[in-house]
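Fig. S4 source data, part A: sequence.
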Amino acid sequence: MGFQREVRADMGVANPGDIVEAHGSHLLLQQMITEDDKCQVGGFVRTGTTATGCVNAAGSNEVIGIIVNDKFYDGSNEGVTLPQGTPVSVAVFGVIAVTNTYSASATFMDDVYVKESDGTLIFNSTGSADGATKTHWKVKQGCQKGEIAFVVR
């Protein structure tokens, strides 16, 4: 985990991987292990290829959820990249904060796609995204590129 990169005078809206509505319904799969070094806090992960209980960001396996921010915080809007073998908790459903690093904007009820090459999120309302897998998640609160969006399942 890196050092905090900035000091904020006010509380931020959320950090990548935060469970936004803690009083609402959410389900976590705990004690999952990262298989690759592309997994990020607040990023989607897929079922692993080597063993039960493993997850990875890249690939074409089933997308299972988002790594939650239960023990990682670096004070920025960017997800913390985790080394291979890191134990993580994965949200299967709920309202979770993610960073929009790819799409120009994310709007309410856009579909959420995950690039197979690296797990990058793509928000799209047209029904497809090249090289990406459609998830069961939708945008609940939109944003511009580089900002935090809330997604829900």
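Fig. S4 source data, part B ends here. The two ends are 28 Å apart (CA to CA).
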